[in-house]
Amino acid sequence: MYELTKGANVGLAALSENVGSVMVSLEWTSSTGEGDADVSVLLLDANGKVRSDADFYFYNNPVAADGSVQLLGKSPSGSGNKDRIGFDLTAVPDEIDRIVVAASRYDGAHFGELGDLRLTLSDASGEDLVRFGIDEAGAVSAFIFGELYRRGGAWKLRAVGDGYAAGLAGLATDFGVDIDDDAADEADGQPQDAAARCVEAAVAPAAPAVVGAPPQVLAAVPAPRRPEGEGEPRKPAPRPRTAKKKVTLPRAAKKSLAENESWRSARLFPVSVLKSDRDREARATSVLLSVMAQVPEFGRRLTAGFGAPAGRMETFAEVSLPHGDAPRRPDGVIRVERAGKLWTALVETKTNGNALRAEQVQAYMDIATRRGYEAVITLSNDVALEGSPLVDVRIDGRRKHKVALWHLSWAEVVHQAQLLIRHEGVGNAAHAWLLQELLHYLQHESSGCHGFQNMGSAWVPVRNGIDDETLCHGDARALEVVESWERLIRQVCLRLGGELGQKVLPVQRSKRGIDPGTRRARLADQLCLEGRLHAEVRIEGTPGLLTVIADLRTGRLRTCVEIPAPDQGYPLTWAKRLVRRLAEAPADLHIETLVEEEAGGPRGTLERLRPEPADLLPKDGAHITGFRLSLFKGMGSSRGNAESGFIRSVDDAVHRFYATVVTHLDPTPPRRPSTPERTPVT
Questions:
Q1: CA atoms of 521 and 387, how far apart (whole Å)
Q2: Are the CB atoms for 44 and 97 separated by under 8 Å?
Q3: Residue pLDDT, tens place only, 3-35
Q4: Is 612 left (phi over 0), alpha (psi -120 to 50) or beta?
Q5: Taking the mean position of all CA atoms in its chain, how far away is CA 366?
Q6: In whole angstroms, how far apart are CA 137 and each of 52, 77, 147, 566, 651?
Q7: Residue 3: which residues within 8 A CB-CB, separation 6 or more?
Q8: What's residue 253's pLDDT?
Q9: Angle (CA) 68 69 74, round 5°
Q10: What is the pTM of this model?
């Protein structure tokens, strides 16, 4: 991989032949797992300015109409995040001279608090080509990682690594984005976070968006995300938004005309004819690929992360391709045409928990290499882990043409469909209806597309070994259970994020630079020692991390969240307000007062504390740093996804805790002065 230093540049064509579409990843780590930033992209003309506000892409305007830019969202990486951006360089308008890739932080946070900042660029095959590591970012809240620019008709990448002390306002002004003069004057002479709030006020939308409304192009640079109801009243945008309204389906079902509940609605994709695994695989593949071709937003959303360009998409099922003595029939083929060029991917699907076969995937990789195809996509109920491929294949390094191997989980397909039809919107009502029919099919119990649903053969032996204390340190079966646990948590995040329309990501606490395999090995050793599986989940807009603990010794699940104490007011007022906000929470909710000492403070159930909130106050007057809210429930014993299974019990516990506890809490509070780091709950 080519390593860039600050200010250096490199031509993309010299590194790979597949640079018509590229992927840029911005990464950072945080020792607490809570550090985050918002990625943005600006398209600049020869004068170094945006042509209009539509040339600014951010979390609420993630996709360019011509497909040249697509923000693909965050995924966990080690102890931090990786934010990916897909660029179709063949679709970038000729008048665009530079593409700036930047990120910003908010609420007074700065990039100097994050570690391991880096930019990575990969080609259409998924191979990493260039890396730019940043040693020190400084106390800035806006930062330019790099820029793509044209020279002699070819694209090059420059490592920039410059920050803006003026934050979001300085970044926006430099590139020609208009900011309301009143807000700019108000920001003069104020601290950096105050200036950012003024920018936020200047660029707020003219009116509240309709529930499920699509991404809109704002009249000025977007503000950092803030939970609903937080902050000062916002000014209207200087001119109205004109983006075309998109269609989402209502959450509440329409009143049925059926005579009784036994009447079932007719469906576009019936499941009653499915008799075997082969039938399920063929039907699921055909249904998915047909909807991808007919709903451009959905097809583009799934293929952009695989390096596919934005263009006309066609899909095919069970195409016969020659291979040795007998032809091979991949489950599907995806082809995208852009400017007379074809991007082709072979698709291999599995349903009902069936595992992918290495020899089958290897054959498709060989076929794709010989025929000049770009990718092989595997699709199954399993969830891929970072640094741990589902299928090992041989790559012939002597061949000039490279084929990328990608994996997609059925849970990810459902997640993307939910985001589009319930939160972000699609082009018209017919597209929304097609996605709804696809979602109904995939979620039907007979479709076989249920996501990760088996903890593996090691689950029962590990549980028994923990019960009778015979599980030894270094047992390979413990590592298998840890990997299955990580897959389960990723799937829980996908399901909850699709329902909420918010980012829900697993948090992975580890030292910087530790590879995923080493991190999982340490967690396996911890499991052998303590008999517990532990995970943390970050839900956008919530006051703390949602923690999930599965105690295999006691057979109990614990879901909890820690919320910081307010900056102002009296402890008794805090306790009364907390109990009042939890009026509709379960009576068996455990509340614990967190104090500076490790021993902890008073605790009790919500039922007992409702008449006497003062019981939450420490008798010795110790300083309160926050409160921990916990729910306990029995853990499923079997390894599968049945009603009594472990997977179902974890999924239900997280969803119940969020719905009955977290939703009643105040949104993300303002940043507090740093306090000594607390040991995660165990």
A1: 13
A2: yes
A3: 999 999 999 999 988 888 899 999 888 766 667
A4: beta
A5: 32
A6: 29, 19, 17, 30, 39
A7: 130, 131, 132, 133
A8: 66
A9: 155
A10: 0.79
